[in-house]
Amino acid sequence: MTAEPITGIVTPIRLDYTYTPGTAPSGFLRGMKEGRILGRRCPQCSKVYVPPRGSCPMCGVEFADEVEVADTGTLVTFAVVNVNFANRVIDLPYVSGEVRFDGSDTTSMVLVQGIPVDEVRMGMRVKAHWLPREEWDFTFANIDYVEPIDEPDADYDSYREFV
Ligand SMILES: [Zn+2]
Question: Could you tell me the pTM of the whole model?
Answer without folding.
Answer: 0.86
